[in-house]
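User: Sorry, folds how?
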Amino acid sequence: MGSSAAKQASEELCAAVQRGDLTACQRLAEGFREPGSASTILDALTSGGLAALHVAAASSRVDIVCFLLDLNADAMVRDSKQRTPLHCASRAISPPNCTACVQVLLRHRADPFSATELGSTALDLARGARCAGCVRALEGAAVLWQGYVDAYQPKLLVIPTWATKWLVVLRDRRHNTGPSFIARGSVHNAFKQAQTLVRDHLSGPSFSHSCPQCSKSNAVPDFVDSFQCRHCGTMLCVPTSLQLALYDCHQDVPDARPVAVLSLPQDPRCIRIKPLDNSGAQGSWFRGALGGLGLASSRPFGLSVSAQDLERGGEVGLAVRFSTAEECAQVRHALLNPLLSTRSLVPKDAYDALLALPVAAEEELPLPSAPPAEVLEPAVVPAPQAAQQAVQHLEQGQEHGAEEGTCVVCLERPATMAILPCGHLCLCQQCNV
């Protein structure tokens, strides 16, 4: 099938997807059964800059998403803004269909740790859309530990208090995705390869880009979670950064948007984790009285987690208390684990083995303390008008709720960073640096 014919077929397929016409999609699919033509058409970007899977995910059409994935559509196909179908589904605001789309894409190995050119992950977009189902599904794919804690709430001109929150410790994003001076892709990869060769010649191998097996530098390709060392052939993994998020709960259900987020830099020198003072009898009358006023916590085991900016010298942090010493130790070990907190390349087999541990052990990855999100089935098929509006927003680069939860500095990216002492989400990760 020629390039012009393939482009025409891709346009027709996207139009059928936008109408929500599964029968038309199936009929069109019969026309590109030739070897190699299916992926060309399914993953081709239309004049609107979107692939068919982008349109189906943005329209929350779970049936069409499953149909396209069964035809081997690429779950990680990217548009011109580095958005994947998972990004589109996460901000669709069409529960429970959008949540079902997110779960289907995750089962087909969509990467929840990939960021767009504006630095937004799928979880950032789901939080901005206030879709609790999508947030829980995405956190379920990234969580290291979650559970109830008492969080310290410093308040301006008000006595600081402790309040019960839902804490989630999770993997956040990969540094080979997101904003870049040069658009990410083949050109950027070639530039990084040349940069690595020059740096190695002038100053020797870079520690953060060195293979742990042969100690030679590698240029990290864009968008991949792992790649092969070009010197010794070892499979290397690109670690993600870590994040702590605190949620208010209503009727034991965490909200969709966190009240505080602490994104940790991938540099152990910038992170400080200290135990909090556990003095005072937990059951004493005085502590009980203060706890009733919110001035003290009944949970005896505490941690203070802070992240420093070596360039600006600033510091942000969270202080939380746990019910048991085991919970406190699990969070501490997850944050200090050298395979999870580093920016350096790590062996893929060791990284995968760490994440696949069936039982939490000391100095190893803890299991979450809550069950994964329930698998949802679509209940309502979105109206064609709503689907078309969602696709139009996507093509125009708009996001639902853009006026609310936007960074107060750049007025473009979602606000994901909290400022102490008020604790309000008002800055994006880039403007906070």
Remarks:
- Residues 190 and 332 are 39 Å apart (CA to CA).
- Residues 186-203 form the longest helix (18 residues).
- The chain has one domain: 45-177+240-432.
- The domain at 45-177+240-432 is CATH 1.25.40.20 (Serine Threonine Protein Phosphatase 5, Tetratricopeptide repeat).
